[in-house]
Design a protein that fits this description.
This protein is mostly helical. The chain contains six helices and no strands.
Length: 169
């Protein structure tokens, strides 16, 4: 009888340990437990994400210039919206980075600047979705106010420039 009781205790203990390991594993997966990046890794990732964003912006500008028939305009709107999505994805990479301690404050500035850009992209997507001239006018005016009152040194290009000068890549 005592042997069976011990086996039962061991079985319960094993199940408890397995359950705890599963909970810990799931927690680590969902909290994004990632190692802190080195300065070089961090700046490399920042540079890569910014280059993706800049390439999307450049492509967006070329799409907006190429409109003709109403069918072409619709195709261009779809393409421009997809480019905006790619630009937003690139900017969202900044929030997924785990910067080294030496860059924590600068990373906060980077996130604030990226958030402004994301707001602008969302405003541009709204402009692209306009169905009437009045909507187009309203949404364009809203997009134009995103950077109002924001000093240039707080905007993404300046923040990135300062950050990348920290370490020569």
């Amino acid at each position: 009888m005592a042997v069976n009781a011990r086996r039962g205790e061991k079985t319960i203990m094993a199940k408890l340990i397995v359950s705890m390991l599963i909970v810990v594993t799931i927690t680590l997966l969902f909290t994004g437990c990632q190692k802190r990046l080195t300065e070089e890794e961090y700046l490399g990732q920042v540079k890569g994400a910014y280059e993706e964003y800049a390439a999307a912006l450049e492509e967006f500008e070329s799409v907006r210039a190429d409109v003709g028939t109403s069918q072409e305009i619709m195709e261009e709107q779809t393409k421009a919206t997809e480019i905006c999505d790619r630009a937003e994805e690139a900017l969202n990479k900044f929030s997924k980075m785990n910067p080294p301690d030496s860059f924590l404050e600068k990373h906060k500035e980077l996130l604030a600047a990226a958030e402004l850009e994301i707001r602008f992209i969302k405003a541009q997507k709204k402009v692209l979705s306009a169905k009437t001239p009045d909507e187009l006018s309203e949404y364009s005016a809203q997009a134009g106010t995103v950077f109002s009152g924001v000093p240039e040194e707080k905007q993404l290009p300046a923040v990135i420039g300062k950050l990348l000068k920290e370490i020569e890549l």
